[in-house]
Amino acid sequence: MARGFSLVEVVVATSLTTVATLALAQLSIVSVRANRFARSTSVATVMALQKLEQLRALTWAFDAAGAPLSGAGLASSPAGALEQNTASYCDFLDDGGRTMAGDLSTPPGTAFVRRWSIQPLPGGDALVIQVAVTPIGPTGASAQAGPSRSSEEVRLVGIKTRKSG
Prior knowledge:
Blueprint: H1 7-56, E1 60-62, E2 68-70, E3 90-93, E4 99-100, E5 112-120, E6 126-135, E7 154-161, E8 163-164
Parallel strand pairs: 1-8
Antiparallel strand pairs: 1-2, 3-4, 3-5, 5-6, 6-7
């Protein structure tokens, strides 16, 4: 009786091990990409929420005489403010969420572009505030995105109503 393994058994075992290792490597790559996407989406959501809360905290009320009061920064935005960089309605953020200096052009090191839109509702006593944060760079959209949305973009919408002062 011969002891050990035949050449066929060794080849089959090696082939199975190779296939399993390659499948595991592919799974690892998919997992790393999914984690990177989840991190980017989480950071973008936090940045959008911060801007939404900052805009909602601005004065939008009535004074004692009943006249409307509006804080700076709550002026109606031009059409397309969420789709393109618009003065006073966009900023650029690094990967830690810090605002970077820049007008309408993307400064080096930018990881996200944040745009917002403010539109009054009919009647004039409420505003719709929208904030969009898009990752840019190798996997994200460009900083000058057009009308189509990136699958990585985060958009939040809020309503602000006037309060009696």
